[in-house]
Amino acid sequence: MHGPSPAEAATAAFRCPPLTDLVHSGKIDHEETPAPIRRHSSFLIGSPFIANHLLTMIRVGIIGATGYTAFEAIRLIQGHPQAEVTAVTSRGDEGKSIVEVHPALRGSIDLPLSLADPAVLAQQCDVAFCCLPHAASAESVRSLREVGLRVIDLSADFRLREVSVYEEWYATKHPWPELLGQVAYGLPELFEDQIKGADLVANPGCYPTSAILPLAPLLQAKAIDANIIVDAKSGVSGAGRTPKLVNLYCEANESITAYAIGSHRHQPEMVDVLERFTGVQADILFTPHLTPMDRGILATIYVQGPGLTAAKVKQMWNETYADAPFVHIVDAPPATKHVSGTNHVHMGAFDAGGRVVLCCAIDNVTKGASGAAVQNMNCMFGLDQTMGL
Fold it and tell me: Which residues are catalytic?
């Protein structure tokens, strides 16, 4: 008999019953049900139709609401049939309307930006999407968890398991180190059981998503060598909304450049998460590139193994992702335009001189960030993964 893995045991304490389980069982008990159910409990007794529609109207707070990932999260949630944005916060734009910061949201939402007061947010929200930079995010997450809010953290603060690795790559002390290794990693295609009912989820990085999904089934089957090259191209939105010289139009347009060669912070995340899922420690050489497009990532990954062919790769992918609604195995080379603005993942495998070349295209802002966060929220609250996506 095999007991639960360390990650499964660690996340067990963060679980609550999925809402849909409570609906179908008729278990509408005020003491046992999560906050979204308690708010509507007076309407639910004896009314399965109303229960099914009201239980999962989830109130979402966006912490640090002025960046691209926050905008995308708000856009997606406002189109979600069972969730709504009820609070938006900012330290630099307090008092402004959200549409002043994100004019494209006009007509969809009109909330004032406020400072993040955990006590107030606990009354306004059921879950918070934390869109702050690393270190600052962990401090905010801690205060939000202390008042009972469930959190999806879009920073890197809880993705890694080892404090020493985090502090080496991010060059700062971790504000909540005792929690590292105990937080569900928010890639439902691989860690759905840990995400379900969790109170804190670490949303994956964009580049790691594009590398982990193609590589995980192959490493798990020990079908490839552990020495792997990941070459990835990203749109300019991946650098965030804060102005930087390299992101200015005249610098980025008509130009492609490599950056952070051998030193990008997403490299240890790839290694750590792949080892977590497969038990294999990969040796990954990762080089990211900045490309003159708004959004999108194309990862080109070079692998080899005894008898490995593209056909065998696709077979392993199909077996692993048979029930993954957003993963698509394609025959033609994937293109970022084909996934732009979506939560979908297009993966292809191609024979090349005794090696196999893997290609993976995602939208860095959607599947690489905010779309994944909505997908994780759906899992946490017992909804269908595709809802609102």
Answer: 206
Domain 6-204+369-380 classified CATH 3.40.50.720? Answer: yes
User: Would 6-204+369-380 and 207-364 be classified into the same CATH topology?
Assistant: no
Query: Which H or E element spans position 232?
Result: strand 227-234
User: What average pLDDT does this structure show over 86-112?
Assistant: 94
What is the pLDDT at residue 241? 64
The secondary structure of residue 11, as a DSSP letter, is: H
Q: Give yes or no for a contact between 358 and 214, defined as CB atoms under 8 angstroms apart.
A: yes
State the DSSP code for 241: S
Distance CA 137, CA 198 (A): 18
pLDDT digits (tens, 9 = 90+) for 203-253: 999 999 999 999 999 999 999 999 999 999 999 877 666 777 777 878 878
Report the alpha-carbon distance of residue 218 to residue 205 in Å, rounded.
Answer: 20
Backbone angles phi, psi at 310, to 5 degrees: -60, -35
CA dihedral 71, 72, 73, 74 (to 10 degrees): 50
Q: Is the pTM of this model over 0.90?
A: no
pLDDT on residue 197? 86
- In tens, the pLDDT along 13-58 reads 333 344 444 333 443 343 344 444 333 333 333 333 334 444 558 9
CATH top-level class for 207-364?
alpha beta
**DSSP codes, 80-98:** -TTEEEEEEE-SSSTTSBH
59: confidence class by pLDDT, cuts 50, 70, 90: very high
Show me where the domains of the chain are located: 6-204+369-380, 207-364
Helices (H), the chain: 6-12, 19-25, 35-44, 48-54, 68-78, 98-101, 118-124, 136-146, 163-170, 188-195, 206-220, 249-252, 266-278, 310-320, 371-380
Q: Each residue of 257-279: pLDDT tens digit?
A: 999 999 999 999 999 999 999 99
SS3 142: helix
